[in-house]
Amino acid sequence: MADPKVLTDRRSVSRQQLVVIGLCLLMNMLDGMDVLVISYAAPVLANQWGIAPEALGVVFSAALFGMSAGALFLSPVADRIGRRRMILLCIVIMTVGILLTAMSQTIWQLGVLRFLSGLGIGGMLASTATLAAEYAPERRKNFFISIAMSGYPIGATLFGVVAAHVIPAWGWRALFVVAGLTSLVTFPLVYAYMTESMDWLMKKQPEGALQKLNAILRKMQLPEIDTLPEPGAEARRNPLKALFEDGRSPLTVQLWVAFFLTFATLYFLTAWIPNLASAMGLSMDLAIYAGTVFNLGAAIGIWLQGFLSLYIGLKRAIIVFLLATAVLMGAFGFLETGPVILTSLGLIGFGMQGGFIGMYAVAAQVYPTEIRNTGVGGAIGAGRTGAIVSPVLAGVLVGMGLTPAENFIAFGVPLLIVCVLIWKLRSRAI
User: Fold this and answer.
1) What would the DSSP string read from start to end of 33-69?
2) How far, in Å, CA of 17 to CA of 22, rounded?
3) DSSP secondary structure, 169-190, as one string
4) Which of 31, 278, 332, 372 is buried deepest, with most CB atoms within 10 A?
5) Could you give the maximum distance between any two Cα atoms of the chain, in Å?
């Protein structure tokens, strides 16, 4: 029996592969939109409701807790029901959460609904990374995973433009309605055009697996198969326990620590860049613009990292990007003029997100198909813990009197540790 994965790796990328990876890109754009919609609405919302910064911080944290819970507890379900079904479920969760947020009346309702939306985001991120990895041809896997995951900063940036027009004209509730309807219209697209992972169908073998697999092969103009291979022992294991079995414990722990530290630095940057840029003497307009420059650099960095990994390998590409980012963060406090500071922030976004998204590709490749979604979700969940801790820690450091330069140095150090952890990962897949 010919292995469909081997056949797809031997030929040029098919239209169906591009469709699935394109839909994964679109889903991550939704994630970027959903994560930051509350940030765009927050100033107007806080003014209208008289919300203290501490209470608003609880709302932000609720979404992060939801993402962590979704990655840790919802993602493993995809290894049982399939990647496509999980993505459809996450769209429903996100859509309901966003639309109901538009009708919320209290700060506690906001917090609960942001947690609900976060559940969908956490499950979506792991499932799209996994599905992109399983549809991408082996020789270009890192590149296509990076393309799919680049949707996050792209969606965040584009929706910022939408927010700038919607909020002044119709208010913050309208922004959540627009975001919710945008999520809703993607459901029929995914339902009609996103096919299930062939790897998952072959190895988990749910009911009707052979028929579904042959339907996908016909779409890809590949020969159909008569029988499925015998399922391996991995298919019958508890996927969460399997992350720590068969010698995977060191790999899983290293990966979780690396994700924790990288998320911590990334969320320090996204949360504190406007404040610290302003403290370095930038005007308020330029300080706000700094976040856009950071995200623009991030989108370019993600694509270039995926391309570079084809030539120097994934591990080396991640280390180059994160090491360069740590150096730039160490030098940040010595910059003086506005244009130089903004350029530096763009380069930090370029290197930070480029290396960060490369780690999704690592997580999607080091685990076997049967537990891959659980492995990616576990790494993301561990990382989200760092995302929850770092803005609070940064606030404490600022309160202690640390300068912007010292804060950037403090959060650049974890990236050096991540470089060591990634280099020491033992896996033939990367």
Assistant:
1) HHHHHHHHHHHHHHHHHT--HHHHHHHHHHHHHHHHH
2) 8
3) HH-HHHHHHHHHHHHHHHHHHH
4) 372
5) 69
Q: Which one of 112-116, 214-218, 245-249 scores highest in mean pLDDT?
A: 112-116
Residue ranges of the chain that CATH labels 1.20.1250.20: 1-231, 238-430
CA 231 to chain centre: 31
Q: Determine whether domain 1-231 maps to CATH 2.60.40.10.
A: no
CA 42, CA 328: separation in Å to the nearest integer?
30
Give the pair of three-digit tokens for residue 68: 């962590």
Chain centroid, CA 164 distance in Å: 24
Q: Which residues contact 39 (CB under 8 A, 6 or more apart)?
A: 60
H helix intervals, 102-171: 107-135, 141-149, 151-170
Q: Which CATH number fits domain 238-430: 3.40.1110.10, 1.20.1540.10, 3.90.1150.10, 1.20.1250.20?
A: 1.20.1250.20
Q: CA-CA distance, 264 to 268, in Å (whole number)?
A: 6
For 397-410, the pLDDT digits (tens) are 777 877 777 888 88
- State pTM to two decimals: 0.87
